[in-house]
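Section 5.1 Outputs to date
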Amino acid sequence: MITNLKAEYDLRFHLEEILTLGILVIMNMIMLIYTRIGDVAGIFMFNILLIMLVLSVRFLHRRIEGQWFADFRDINIIIAGWLVYFEHHHLVPLVNPYDIDAYLIHIDRFLFLGIDPTVLLESITHPMLTEFLQIVYASFYFLPFSIMLILFFKGRRMDFHVVVSTLMLSFYICYVGYYIFPAIGPRFTLDHLQTFPLSGVLFYDYVRDFLDGYSFMTRDCYPSGHALLSIMTALLSYRYLRPYFRFIAAWAGIIIFSTVYLRYHYVVDVITSLIIAMIVFKFNPQMVQRYIFAFKNGREERIAPQSINSKI
């Protein structure tokens, strides 16, 4: 049954492919409207190539048989979405140069009775804790991929598609937010209020410098992608990988705390990410399943949870 559903689904565009094509088209339209095309020609053409890649793989899957190409198609779209992320470093200042940090600072001070949370956290700051949190913060990039890969290698491909499309929708919502609400974060705007800089023990400087190598002072603060995808990964693990939930939830919780402790994010960034995650988690997995399990004749069949979670 699940095998047939997977085969039926592969005849259509996967939802994550639709989402990625949509964000690529939107980004190119934004570049045409809000920037000088000469300043972004490389990114514009790269997006065209990504669109062609996604479309080519989808249509070649009709002609190329074999599990290897189906696997390639499933993983290819994740890589394409990951590549989109790096474009905002250059594009956000060109599209919207008006940072909203001042508003975010005011909201945080309202929530904490006039005190900046990053300053408040100095009371518990310690090099050992800073070292640990910086490493965990950097490990975020493995967190959402971990749940995807577990489902992928367990052969639970329908659950894999639900999880991937839900995470990618969350990421793209966050990504669009960077352009609408650009902000650089408290480690730059509130540095003059901190009584001392953060310091670690062994690897802190190396990890932070490595991360800064491709994301120094980027306007990707609001909402927090680290918080949004961490929360979403934990929620999805509770639904689809219950045995791993406690570990993933703890991992996600530490990452979320580290975003404020390490002065990357304001608390309001995290709160907004939590609200977005709860809305997406409430509605999107069911919508994805309706799309996945819809047959060509227009009828829909409800699949029991144990059937959804079975191997193909």
